[in-house]
Amino acid sequence: MAHRNMVQAINSAMDIMLERDPRVVILGEDVGYFGGVFRCTEGLQRKYGEHRVFDTPIAEGGIVAAAIGLGVNGLKPVAEIQFADYIYPAFDQIVSELARLRYRTAGEFFAPVTIRTPCGGGIRGGQTHSQSPEVIFSHVCGIKVIMPSNPYDAKGLLISSIEDEDPVVFFEPKRIYNGPFDGDPHKPAVPWSSHAKGEVPDGYYTVPISRSEVVRAGKDVTVLTYGTMVHVTEAAVRVAGVDAEIVDVRTLVPLDVDTLCTSVCKTGRCVIVHEATRFSGYGAELLEAPIQRVTGWDTPYPHAFEWEYFPGPARIAAALKSVMEAS
Amino acid sequence: MTQRSRLHVPHPPARPGDKPDFSYVQISPAGAVGRPDVTAPARDIESLSLEMVRVLDDQHRAVGPWNPHLEPQDLQVGLRHMLLTRHFDDRMQRMQRQGRVSFYMKSTGEEAVSVGQGMALLPGDMLFPSYRNQALYIVRGRSLVDLMCQCLSNTKDMCKGRQMPVMYHWASGNIFSISGNLATQFPQAVGWAMAAAIKGEDRLAASWIGEGSTAEADFHHALTFAAVYQAPVILNVVNNQWAISTFQGFAGGEHRTFAQRGPGYGIPGIRVDGNDFLAVHAVTQWAAERARQSGGPTLIEHVTYRAAAHSTSDDPSRYRPKEEWQSWPLGDPINRLKQHLIGLGEWSEERHSALEKQLEAHVSACWKEAVSYGTLTEGPSLDPASMFEDVFKQLPAHLARQRDQLRALLRAQEGSAPKKAPEGLQSVAKEG
Asked: Are A68 and B158 within 8 A, CB to CB?
């Protein structure tokens, strides 16, 4: 057991998976010889060779497309997109290809690709180095979306992601790479060594995907949050003197509804906090009752069943009825 | 006079009512282009991207250094595959017109590309086709019944009703899934080939896109990654002159050949007569041998003509002369191979007619079997609840809930209305 910051924890996860599984390869801009602009892949090319850890051309669409091809041919690629803000050139390859391959081939083909990408603000990155685009991906059926809030979870969840046979977009809140951040930029930086979740085992372990965690128990109100905002919320709760229960969502898709509902049912109140923009944001996903939503199912649009998929009058009527009964 | 710029909007040489004009197609005489060693450096063989590799001459004789010297039996197999593809396409088009399938895309006039290449590659080579390479399935022996069932979205549909017609896949036959989005498979094929090289295998990848799709960023990504990592991949641009209604000039074909894009990346580019079965076979063999010797990628431009509409939703008489195909200077690939075989004394008009009858009957029998597994509008049909499978490897809780909601809804509807084709299907079938 050792203290690790998030960069070291993420590096350790990849190191362990490169060691354990010869199918794992790492690719991305500057990830090879240099070790990544945030140092997450430092030393890995030296240790495992340039056929396992290699630099790529500056072409995010090409990186994800190549990762899909590598994955279809039996490898387990971990692709780094240097900033989440740079991920959009790869959007078609993620949405139309990576997310749909298993579905459109009825399971015959799949590409177990993990896309790691630093996200979020707080490092004076401006509008092209600070974005939190997680909801753009959580809206796409067929990919898992994860955002850890601490080194322990980052390592365990990244190992789970690499082992998972579904594609994962793994967001790393870069403001907390080096330490938990309570939202006050004027305070001296706090290192992860001062935080319980900065204790990271040296070896292999996993944190399960699709499990949220109650990081602070409380009885007055539930706060649902993830990433950097977990720490900001903890600080705010201390200041506000409210006995809040804080749930770190951790996996945005597939969502751990049970943990969230249990907490909200217990406290009877709920606040949702995320760094990303509000309109059509992830928070809307966490608002269910009493509003009913009639939508397409969370699957791609199937050719044969488009009218079973289409949110037709029968489903709308059922929702109206259920809302009327509830009120 | 004031100097000012002027936007150039390309125009095809002929529109409906005009006399077809293919004078822009530069054609080398058969046998005139040299065949370099497969180890030749890319920079030494740039002329291959300007000329046109052709083997069959105007008298249908095989001439010159690219003649692959195939056995007559192989040529007969190639002819059979091409003819079967054409009959299959014609049948499926008719079935679409009858409303039995929602959509179809023919490959008429381009059969030599998929058949010639499919036969030149090894079974272990991984193919990343576009939507007009159905003949690859025929070369590799996939049953027509299976392809038809996919188009019908029926109970034996390999895609379980999830894809539009013609978007097949075949994992054990090493043919990758067809995407509805253009060119995405091109850089994926490069990634696959990179993995083959990482694992030290002798398998290679081949991929196909149309000349129109070379405008997509994926084309650039594919060529960049293929060149950087010297991936064992054959990247094919099927230049059939038309991308729905826009002629090849809208992809930049007025200024350079598509094969010439290869040398810009340091990749050999070969321009080949795409209607010459022997030439297509020969350049594919060359590129495959080069790739297997760690010589890296090759870009091949197949010069051909899209004789049919883009798809059943398209009407080419609105944008090009109806009789344009008859003026296409590179002819019909099936007729050219047929005449070559007749010239060799290995084929005859009688054998050809007999084969056509036999294939026609085969296609009919396959169709009859395929519809027995259901059509989009008549049973038996797939379980709609299956639409929730394969979004993820395991069904997550939210999809299980949605599946249960759909099942409850379907149960509630059962008996309340007679089963009929869902409203709106006809318009969808028309629009594709």
From this structure: no
- Measure the CA–CA gap between A196 and B194, rounded to whole angstroms: 42
The 3-class secondary structure across A46-77, one letter per residue, is: HHHCCCCEEECCCCHHHHHHHHHHHHHCCCEE
Say yes or no: A159 and A237 in one domain: no
| pTM (predicted TM-score) | 0.94
Residue A155 lies in a domain: yes
Contact status, residue B151 vs residue B229, Cβ threshold 8 Å: no
- Least CA distance to A96: which residue of chain B? B181
Two structure tokens written together for B120:
């030149």
Best mutation target among B221, B404, B406 (most A Cβ atoms within 10 Å) is B221
Chain B residues near residue A144 by CB distance under 8 angstroms: 392
Q: Is A26 within 8 Å of A14 (Cβ atoms)?
A: yes
CA distance A171 to A186: 25
Whole-angstrom Cα distance, residue B19 to residue A324?
A: 68
Q: Are residues A148 and A253 in the same domain?
A: no
Same domain? For A190 and A70 the reply is yes
Catalytic residue numbers of A, as ranges: 129
A40 and A154 co-located in one domain:
yes
Query: Is there a contact between B184 and A65 if contact means CB atoms under 8 Å apart?
Result: yes
pLDDT tens string B159-173 = 999 999 999 999 999
- pLDDT value for A284: 83
Count Cβ atoms within 10 A of the Cβ of residue A279 and give its class: 0-12 exposed, 13-18 middle, 19 or more buried.
exposed
CB spacing of A65 vs B393 below 8 angstroms: no
B281: phi then psi, degrees, rounded to nearest 5:
-60, -45
CATH (domain of A192): 3.40.50.970
Confidence of residue A296 (pLDDT cuts 50, 70, 90): confident
Please report the pLDDT score of residue A310 as a whole number: 85
The residue range of the domain holding A96 is 2-200
Residue among B125, B153, B170, B198 with most chain A CBs within 10 A, to mutate: B198
Residue burial A107-145, b: 16+ Cβ < 10 Å; e: rest: ebbbbbbbbbbbbbbbeebeeebbbbbbbbbbebbbbbb
ipTM for the whole complex: 0.92
For chain B, residues with pLDDT lower than 70 are 1, 415-432
**Does residue A163 share a domain with residue A264?**
no
pLDDT tens-place string over residues A32-63: 999 999 999 999 999 999 999 999 999 999 99
Q: Inspect the interface and report whether the beta carbons of B376 and A304 lie closer than 8 Å.
A: yes
Express each pLDDT in A81-100 by its tens digit: 999 999 999 999 999 999 99
Instruction: Flag whether A162 is in a domain.
Output: yes
